[in-house]
Amino acid sequence: MRDPILAFGKYEILEAVGSGGMATVYRAKLSGPMGFEKPVAVKVLQDDAAADEEIVRMFVDEARLGARLSHPNIAGVMEFGEADGRYFLAMEYVDGMSLGTLLRRRPKGKKAKGLEPAAAVYVASCVLKALAYAQALPGSDGKPMGVVHRDVSPQNILLDRSGAAKLCDFGIATGTWRAEKTRVGVVKGKAGYMAPEQSAGGRVDARTDLYAVGLTLVAMLSGNAPFDGKDTGEIRAKASKGLPRDRIDALACDDGLKDVLMRALAMRPADRFASADEFLKSLAAAAPDPADTGRAALAVALEAALERAPGARSGTARAAVAKAPKRRAATQSSKDAASAAGIRNVLIGAGLLVLVALALALLKVGLPD
Length: 369
What we know:
Helix content: 40-55%
Largest sheet: 6 strands, antiparallel
Structural class: alpha+beta
Number of strands: 9
CATH topology of the domain at 97-309: Transferase(Phosphotransferase), domain 1
Strand order of the largest sheet: 1-2-3-4-6-5
Shape: globular
CATH superfamily of the domain at 97-309: Transferase(Phosphotransferase) domain 1
CATH architecture of the domain at 97-309: Orthogonal Bundle
Oligomer: single chain
Mean pLDDT: 82
């Protein structure tokens, strides 16, 4: 494990692994006595976001929900706190990459290639198990909290080296625990993985997440995003009309799996699977035994992608490290600059003294007795 860049509370930050508009995620470690070390992911709210009351509420709500979620296919939340005046979430660290990165990381010059159907079905099954658990999660009153993730997409599915798949980032999830409900007409989520009702700003429910799982399955099988466009508006406009049937027909998979996708991606929520459990059963019938063959195929694909990983982190990650946490980094930079200036001044002073001494020596030689 590499040396820490800086300390943030009790966590030692090692490197940035991702940055968005609201927060930056870092790989970190928690150290203890007798050489104890535990890898963790630390999600830190950015300074600009911390000044927005609504974003802070969302971050706190994510922490509150995360504290209740405990499932093998969900990246767990370990702690919520504040350090150096900034809010953070300490989370389970998944040693691998996101599904989004895996789908993008292909050999140069080669066309997009999706995952093997068994691997794609396995990942989708893991996500559906996570959603089934979240949808049934009881609140303090014993009733289901009505959790809707609203942001199921390859970027929010983490894969570790063994092939395990975990759903993460419940930052914009909605449900009865929310301190403030999202207003109808306000659209949140990734445009390319939205159900028609979500892209139109309508009401969302569990079936909205199931539609997003269907789109993610299409992305895994094809190697391409379900919808393309020059900007978010164009992508969202296409998403609101649903995925054309010919896109499903062109997928390299059995007809049984295509039939499952047709139902998952129905325009009307009433025509889709009613729950994650129902979707999961149909998926298991269409592509049995993904837990063994699918997980193994995924692990092979992941290992190949990790071997193609660049030696250094992306410019975004490096920039994020340079900014976080800003106060401590800025203080260190000031100290370094002051130290360099001090050394420079000492050298200049010494040089002037030498010149004065030489001048006096010359004058003394030239003076009459």
